[in-house]
């Protein structure tokens, strides 16, 4: 009996998870959202002072790259962009199996702090990555020079309003949809995860773009980071805590030493 290779099982896992999205859950005016991150057994996503950690094992990391290949765009916050200097590409998928289309990198960066020599912009200039899209605040008037420098370095800059000091997630999603993005993978970091989880909460759900079609895929590594690591926290108010979103289990798989779980936020359906 032939057993699937790890590549196939990671890909098959994702295909089965995403095929569980029914057509009537898809909206044409905003992308489908997949929220994903890796955490330690004690719920940390990075080390002391945000130090980037390799939590995922090779098998689950490959799964993450397959997941990237199945989305039109990959979004991170500026905290992650500055701290990790990520590439957000699909380089771990063996050539020959790797889809030719690349995901679009998207950064939430209200004050245009992204470095012009970051890997995302370098990859674009070298022809190995798509042009990064940066969302900034429509109030970031003081950032005119940084905007020009980023555009000269290859970025496309979009403006949206801020809500409570952070960029408006509905406006970001609406603009992405306008630009042809149908599926969005949100990779973190802590503040962005908090923002998207909070936004998916029921009180915001009336006409809420996220609540209808959000899948969360978490990798849990059998590693302890310790109390000085960085965790994510949702930050629900006391009232919201009495009425948390319901998570509907889709599928859990062991990949290498890690456990990968997929759930859907189902309170709206
Ligand atoms: N284990 C894992 O899977 C992952 C771990 N990480 C880790 O996470 C850490 C970074 O997390 P963190 O510092 O919280 O930074 P984030 O990457 O979450 O970026 C947060 C910043 O993004 C900007 N932003 C703009 N709009 C929004 C919005 N609506 N919601 C949230 N953020 C918004 C804000 O900065 P501004 O006001 O300037 O716009 C905000 O401070 C790093 O240590 C990294 O290694 C990151 C990704 C995955
Ligand atoms: N899946 C996963 N496992 C980990 O252990 C991680 N640290 C991360 N981090 C995310 O991946 C980004 C780095 O991407 P590149 O390798 O540079 O393409 C990092 O910024 C986090 O978003 N993910």
TrEMBL record:
Top-level taxonomic group: Eukaryota
Keyword flag NADP: yes
Pathway participation: Cofactor biosynthesis; riboflavin biosynthesis
Keyword Zinc applies: no
InterPro entries linked to this entry: DHFR-like_dom_sf, RibDG_C, Riboflavin_Biosynth_HTPR
Gene Ontology MF, one: 5-amino-6-(5-phosphoribosylamino)uracil reductase activity
SUPFAM superfamilies: Dihydrofolate reductase-like (SSF53597)
Keywords, ordered alphabetically: NADP, Oxidoreductase, Riboflavin biosynthesis
Pfam families assigned to the protein according to its UniProt record, in alphabetical order: RibD_C
Enzyme class: oxidoreductase
Bacterial bifunctional deaminase-reductase C-terminal domain residues: 31-229
Gene3D superfamilies: Dihydrofolate Reductase, subunit A
Reactions it catalyzes: 2,5-diamino-6-(1-D-ribitylamino)pyrimidin-4(3H)-one 5'-phosphate + NADP(+) = 2,5-diamino-6-(1-D-ribosylamino)pyrimidin-4(3H)-one 5'-phosphate + NADPH + H(+); 2,5-diamino-6-(1-D-ribitylamino)pyrimidin-4(3H)-one 5'-phosphate + NAD(+) = 2,5-diamino-6-(1-D-ribosylamino)pyrimidin-4(3H)-one 5'-phosphate + NADH + H(+)
GO biological process: riboflavin biosynthetic process
EC nos: 1.1.1.302
PANTHER family: 2,5-DIAMINO-6-RIBOSYLAMINO-4(3H)-PYRIMIDINONE 5'-PHOSPHATE REDUCTASE, DIHYDROFOLATE REDUCTASE FAMILY PROTEIN (AFU_ORTHOLOGUE AFUA_8G06820)
Family per similarity comment: Belongs to the HTP reductase family.
Function: Catalyzes an early step in riboflavin biosynthesis, the NADPH-dependent reduction of the ribose side chain of 2,5-diamino-6-ribosylamino-4(3H)-pyrimidinone 5'-phosphate, yielding 2,5-diamino-6-ribitylamino-4(3H)-pyrimidinone 5'-phosphate.
Name listed for the protein in its UniProt record: 2,5-diamino-6-ribosylamino-4(3H)-pyrimidinone 5'-phosphate reductase
Organism: Scleroderma citrinum Foug A
